[in-house]
Amino acid sequence: MSATIRIAIASIFVGALVLGIKTLAWWLTGSVALLADALESTVNVATAIAALIAIRIAARPADASHPYGHHKAEFFSAVLEGVMIIVAALLILREAYTGFLAPRAMDLPIEGLLVNGAATVINAIWAWVLVRRGRAARSPALVADGKHLFTDVITSAGVALGILLAIVTGWWLLDPLMAALVAVNILWSGFHLVRQSLSGLMDEAVSEDTLAKVRDIISREAGGAVEAHDLRTRHAGQATFIDFHLVVPGETTVFDAHEICDRVEAALKVAVEGAKITIHVEPEHKQKHSGIVVLD
């Protein structure tokens, strides 16, 4: 079992623990804002399960039906997570509206806040672990899960502040108001996550920094060639696909051209983790004079 899958499994158990603690906080207080916080944790558990399934599928090797692998499965998980976040936000808005119509004092508000605070601390620690490990493993599903938990931590802190103000001022309308603010923040988080994941599904190119690194490596390592052009990149889960045309002098043998390609591929795989490289070798008359100039 890979480390990524172990972390995904642990996320399910952590999410269930936090959900239980937040539900207890809501039960102690009857707070609409704490109910909103608990509803968001329900989404956390569901999306952690979806992330685990996606990671297991993405780890499968290429086969006859999927010759390029299953890497994009993680993007589907991240899109699903974003959609579920938006659904949770709409449910919270409904509860907030009910609270606006009939605001009420909370039962045991301090006790509820302490219980909810414990859940927030657990979420903060686990969110940091997920983002750190997800980036190291180049797993969009784990990073998305971690970023969502960070928004959960922020909204939990806002909820706690709102409830404290309600206790001090006696203005219990602050409770549903905080629930509504939580919902708006979650909506924004869900929208951003869906947009980011769709960019991966639409084969968006790698970042400008990574692209510059790829161009520099080709220029330095393709000695013996003339130029490289039609460079294309895309990322899918833990894989980064790089393909380009490499122009070599007409008298270059197949063996020598292959040696050049092997040298470039080796350098790219060191610099870009998970790189999948395709190089199309062309004779000198195919030169475009507009691509990557190979350094002597």
TrEMBL record:
<dbReference type="InterPro" id="IPR036837">
    <property type="entry name" value="Cation_efflux_CTD_sf"/>
</dbReference>
<dbReference type="InterPro" id="IPR058533">
    <property type="entry name" value="Cation_efflux_TM"/>
</dbReference>
<dbReference type="InterPro" id="IPR027470">
    <property type="entry name" value="Cation_efflux_CTD"/>
</dbReference>
<feature type="transmembrane region" description="Helical">
    <location>
        <begin position="152"/>
        <end position="171"/>
    </location>
</feature>
<feature type="transmembrane region" description="Helical">
    <location>
        <begin position="34"/>
        <end position="55"/>
    </location>
</feature>
<feature type="transmembrane region" description="Helical">
    <location>
        <begin position="177"/>
        <end position="194"/>
    </location>
</feature>
<dbReference type="InterPro" id="IPR050291">
    <property type="entry name" value="CDF_Transporter"/>
</dbReference>
<keyword id="KW-0812">Transmembrane</keyword>
<feature type="transmembrane region" description="Helical">
    <location>
        <begin position="75"/>
        <end position="93"/>
    </location>
</feature>
<protein>
    <submittedName>
        <fullName>Cation diffusion facilitator family transporter</fullName>
    </submittedName>
</protein>
<dbReference type="Pfam" id="PF01545">
    <property type="entry name" value="Cation_efflux"/>
</dbReference>
<keyword id="KW-0813">Transport</keyword>
<keyword id="KW-0472">Membrane</keyword>
<dbReference type="Pfam" id="PF16916">
    <property type="entry name" value="ZT_dimer"/>
</dbReference>
<dbReference type="InterPro" id="IPR027469">
    <property type="entry name" value="Cation_efflux_TMD_sf"/>
</dbReference>
<feature type="domain" description="Cation efflux protein transmembrane">
    <location>
        <begin position="9"/>
        <end position="202"/>
    </location>
</feature>
<feature type="transmembrane region" description="Helical">
    <location>
        <begin position="113"/>
        <end position="131"/>
    </location>
</feature>
<dbReference type="InterPro" id="IPR002524">
    <property type="entry name" value="Cation_efflux"/>
</dbReference>
<comment type="similarity">
    <text>Belongs to the cation diffusion facilitator (CDF) transporter (TC 2.A.4) family.</text>
</comment>
<feature type="transmembrane region" description="Helical">
    <location>
        <begin position="7"/>
        <end position="28"/>
    </location>
</feature>
<feature type="domain" description="Cation efflux protein cytoplasmic">
    <location>
        <begin position="207"/>
        <end position="284"/>
    </location>
</feature>
<keyword id="KW-1133">Transmembrane helix</keyword>
